[in-house]
Specification:
Keywords: tRNA processing. The protein is an alpha+beta fold. The chain is built from eight helices and nine strands. Strands 1, 5, 6, 7, 8 and 9 form a six-stranded mixed β-sheet that branches. A three-stranded antiparallel β-sheet has the order 2-4-3, covered by helices on one side.
Length: 339
């Protein structure tokens, strides 16, 4: 018998070219309706999304309109309140400036047309001169120191050496860390020591003196007056009997309240503020001239403050036996600048 070789043959029937073309056309037909339905669904979604826009706009319009109505109502209410005469706040007044009616001025002495201006823009625009009980207007025009019979003699000004004067001045102005200055007494007599004591107190107001023995020598020790005893009784031990107990003077000050000025003076003089008296307090934001009285402080000590203080001047010194009292004045003379 002959052997026969068997080859595997595929069971599928081969497609012709026409069959392939027909299959592709069928696929196209199936896909195209899907695309159409997809487009239709997108369009339907777009229409659904577009439809709510109209009512939203209408709602927004409805919301805006009430707001406008509310604003109109508020304006009408404000107009009504203005017509009713409701008072403005201080901030509103300051926007357009204060008028006469704002501060209660309703009538005028003169009939001419008024004018506007700025009051006290600078402290120098407001100058006050005190008028005393006798009608005299206070002016600062004399810086001299009064001299009486019990003032120090000429020898008082020559007993100290230039070196001692330099050291005492530095101590007085607190320019160094020394708390005292020792001056040796060459001729140890009571008269000599008295002259040195008078010289230190007269030439350097604010300093006190005492006598000490050191290594068998006599020294005059100068130091700043301090302590309760010195503050309570300022210079009481050396005050002449023939001199008035109160030193009256004219105080010129700039941009300072009267009490602030008194506190500054008492601090530099190392005394309590209650030994000062005056007839009235003056404005802070101004240039003021007034009379002040102080108990048992010499004119020399007060005049020395003109070298130490700024925006203060003291002068027209005199000694009297009485202090000043509040209200003992006729009034004040004002010089006002309007800008």
């Amino acid at each position: 018998m002959e052997a026969v070789e068997m080859k595997s043959v595929p069971l599928k029937r081969p497609h012709s070219e026409d069959d392939v073309a027909n299959a592709e056309e069928i696929k196209r037909q199936k896909i195209s309706p899907k695309l159409k339905t997809g487009n239709d669904s997108e369009q339907s979604l777009e229409t659904v999304a577009e439809q709510p826009e109209k009512p939203l706009l209408e709602d927004m319009k409805n919301e805006v309109i009430p707001n406008e109505i509310n604003e109109d109502q508020e304006d009408e209410e404000l107009e009504d309140s203005d017509e009713d005469g409701d008072p403005e706040s201080f901030a509103d007044m300051m926007k357009h400036g204060l008028t006469e009616s704002d501060v209660g001025i309703t009538k005028f002495v003169s009939s001419h047309k008024g004018f506007s201006g700025i009051l006290k823009e600078r402290y120098s625009d407001f100058v006050v001169h005190e008028i005393g009980k006798d009608g005299r207007v206070s002016h600062l025009d004399d810086f001299s120191v009064p001299v009486d019979d019990e003032d120090p003699s000429e020898e008082t000004f020559t007993v100290l050496s230039e070196e001692d004067k330099q050291r005492l001045e530095e101590l007085q102005l607190l320019k160094n860390k020394e708390t005292s200055v020792a001056i040796e007494v060459i001729e140890d007599t009571k008269e000599k020591r008295t002259i040195i004591h008078q010289a230190v107190k007269s030439l350097f107001p604010g300093l006190e003196t005492k006598t000490e023995d050191r290594d068998g020598k006599r020294f005059i020790i100068a130091y700043h007056a301090a302590g309760k005893k010195a503050l309570a009784n300022p210079r009481k031990h050396s005050w002449p009997k023939s001199r008035g107990s109160y030193c009256h003077f004219i105080l010129y000050k700039e941009n300072k309240d009267t009490m602030d000025a008194i506190n500054v003076l008492s601090k530099f003089l190392r005394v309590k503020p209650n030994i000062f008296s005056y007839m009235g307090t003056k404005d802070k934001r101004a240039i003021t001239v007034q009379e002040i009285a102080v108990l048992r402080i010499t004119a020399q000590r007060l005049a020395h403050l003109n070298k130490c203080l700024m925006n203060f001047k003291l002068g027209n010194f005199s000694y009297k036996n009485h202090p000043l009292k509040l209200g003992e004045l006729q009034g004040n003379h004002f010089t006002v600048v309007l800008r």
